[in-house]
Amino acid sequence: MRRSLALVPSPSQVAAESAALISLERASLAAQLDFVREAQGEEMPASRVDVQAQLPAERLASKTAALTVLGLVAGLLVGAAVALVRAARRGTLYSPRRIVMAFDGGEVVAGVAHGFRGARAAPLWQEVRVMLDPAGPVVALLSAGQDTMTLAAGVGLAEEFASTGTTVALLDLGGRLPRHDGGEGVDGVFRVTLDSQEPAFGCRPQDAPSAVAALGERFELVIVLAPPLSGNLVTLHEIFKVAASRVILLRGGDTTQGDAARLRIAERAAPERRVLVLTN
What we know:
The chain has helices at residues 2-7, 11-40, 63-90, 96-102, 122-132, 147-162, 208-216, 233-242, 257-266, and strands spanning 92-93, 107-112, 138-143, 168-172, 190-191, 200-202, 221-225, 245-251, 255-256, 274-279. The protein is α/β, with parallel strands linked by helices. It has a domain at 94-279: P-loop containing nucleotide triphosphate hydrolases (Rossmann fold, 3-Layer(aba) Sandwich). The strands form 2 sheets. It has an 8-stranded mixed sheet with strand order 2-10-8-3-7-4-6-5, with helices on both faces. A hairpin with an 8-residue loop joins strand 5 (190-191) and strand 6.
């Protein structure tokens, strides 16, 4: 025990050894600093300019602009892909050939580019009238698109038949037009307001057979503006049974495989005479 305590240095010895080590370290650092100064020949400055700054000869493109363009392109590609997937799921038809095949062909008129009324649309309806000849006392007109397209096409077709001296009436079954006088007519038929030189009427879909019969006593031709293909199949079937011929308006992007299937169901036991009008 006494021998172990004798080996422990005293505080004064520890202090003396520490001071010696510090002095040695300072001397080493001072010597290294003197060596560097002698090698450089002067004291080292904090910084030094080797070349004067100059403006670039050409303007550099911004990375932000490049990233923005890439983001826009990527967004457009993703949006197009999503639209194609949705169209595929809905079975949307775009090309005229696919539309005609889906609706089992038949008489086809294509290339409508100037609307359905007026002098520019006259050749279209002349061709349809010739294809329907003889049209019979009742023609059903319907579409897979917007109601405005059905109304405009109905007026254009009525004007074409009227130009030949045929007395024509339009009958709206889709509730698209306001009543002219607000009162009920005979057999549920009432006048409606429509921008047309030919008289226009309306009725409920279930009253269509009696309405067509009543109007047939006064007019040589009744053009029935049927509900769209997305409407009630029973109503369409009943209309097709009383119509001698049908005109179907189809537009790429608005027509689906489902529309074609519904039309085939509604056309069972209906007359064969039918014209497909492809629009754009």
